[in-house]
Each structure stands twice: as C-alpha cells, then as structure tokens.
From TrEMBL:
<keyword id="KW-1133">Transmembrane helix</keyword>
<feature type="domain" description="DUF218">
    <location>
        <begin position="96"/>
        <end position="242"/>
    </location>
</feature>
<dbReference type="GO" id="GO:0043164">
    <property type="term" value="P:Gram-negative-bacterium-type cell wall biogenesis"/>
</dbReference>
<dbReference type="InterPro" id="IPR003848">
    <property type="entry name" value="DUF218"/>
</dbReference>
<dbReference type="InterPro" id="IPR051599">
    <property type="entry name" value="Cell_Envelope_Assoc"/>
</dbReference>
<dbReference type="GO" id="GO:0005886">
    <property type="term" value="C:plasma membrane"/>
</dbReference>
<dbReference type="Pfam" id="PF02698">
    <property type="entry name" value="DUF218"/>
</dbReference>
<protein>
    <submittedName>
        <fullName>YdcF family protein</fullName>
    </submittedName>
</protein>
<keyword id="KW-0812">Transmembrane</keyword>
<dbReference type="InterPro" id="IPR014729">
    <property type="entry name" value="Rossmann-like_a/b/a_fold"/>
</dbReference>
<feature type="transmembrane region" description="Helical">
    <location>
        <begin position="6"/>
        <end position="27"/>
    </location>
</feature>
<dbReference type="GO" id="GO:0000270">
    <property type="term" value="P:peptidoglycan metabolic process"/>
</dbReference>
<keyword id="KW-0472">Membrane</keyword>
Amino acid sequence: MLSKLLYVALLPSAWLVLLAVAAVFDWRPQWRRRWRRGLLALVLVGTNLALANEAMRAWELPAVPLSAVPPHDAGVLLTGITNQRHSPHDRVYLTEGADRLMHTLWLYRAGRIRRIIISGGSGSLLLRKGQRTEAAELLVLLQLAGVPRSAVLLEDRSHNTRENALFTKELLARHPDIKSLVLVTSAFHQRRAIGCFEQAGLPVTPFPAAFYSVDRSLWADYWLIPSVEALEQWTRLLHEISGYLTYKILGYC
C-alpha cells in the first residue's frame, strides 16, 4: 500500500491531470495562471527525452564488462521478464527485460558463473491449471540454449524482490558449495535488489542488464523534440524509486 501511494504521488501523468484541472477550474485568475505555468513546465520537463534519459542513467548501475567479473559459483537471475497472460501456452513470451536472461547465459558461457539460480514464482498469486512459474519458463529457454538441467536451480515461490532474497537464501542452505553469487537483474532495479540480498545476508556481485537508458546523442530529436517515450521513462523510473523508498522505510533493503 505504501509503495502504491508513493507511486501515485510521484506519477507524472497524475500531476499533469491535476494541474490541467486546476488551470481550468480554479476560480482565482492569478492561480489559474500559476497552474498553467506549472503545467507548461511539467510538460516541457516530462516530455524531454534527454532529461528523462539523464535521470535514468544516474539511477541505473553502469554496465560491467564480462572481463571484469571473476568466476563465481552461481548467478542469480531474477524473473519478471515473461508474459504469462498470452495464448497459446505452448511457448514462452519474453518482455522488454529479456536481456536479463541473455546476459545470464552469456556469463555462464563465458565461464563467469558455474551454475544458474532462477528466482521468481508467478506474477499472479494463484497459478492457473497448466501454468508454469516464471522460473520454470526461463528454465525452458535455458535448456533450449543448451544449459544442462543439472546446472540450474529453481526458486519458484517468490513474488517480490524481498522474497527473491529470502527464498534464495533458503535454497542456498541446501547447497553449501555455492558461496559466491552474481546478481543479474535490470540496471534500474539493481539498487533495490542488492539491498534486499545484503539485508538477507547474501553478498552479491551486481551485473546490471536490460538498460532503459541509452548513450547521449547530439541530434535534435534527443534534446529538443517532445517525446511520449520520455513520459514513459519518467513513469518507469519513479515507480522504481517509490518501490526502493518503501523497501528502505520497511527495512527490507
């Protein structure tokens, strides 16, 4: 509940609507002018792709070269990159964070991790008949890519980042040979994930993936032309920041 309240309080589209309503219906002329100026400022900032990208670049942890990752016993791949609400259910549907899977596979093939731990249950509280957990779906893809089943461990009960850490710790208690971990999740999610794993007593080496930020550009469409993509970027970033702050307040990370 706290996370949702913070998210709504930070949501750019909510502020756009509130300012637009105030600018039209406030009976005080001087305040209507102020609301309009605020609305214009928010539109200019919220639709500027360069500003949104710079904010995301500042929040995301930077990419780590493969050569900079020493060998580890295992990599922990956090789920949240499959769409389980699409038919037919004879395949796996990946979403925009699929780099998490590909970069984990890259770490494995490069010999940087010896085993892969997939952490994540279902996106819904109850599994439908015949529905796989998100961890099981990614296992299917890893096996298609030639990763032996013996090299993959599943943690398929968690529904959030805190549970990812807690249930992975329980899993590792049954595998004392795994002592060093690489944590693979989206770059903008790494701060919260690292905090949760360290709070659970699991030190990790972060390996950010699935970047939403891009390299800076000199073209006008990057700096000057308003973009709906910028609003989406701000929304995504502020949603994660609200989740991070909530976890901090609750002592989860």
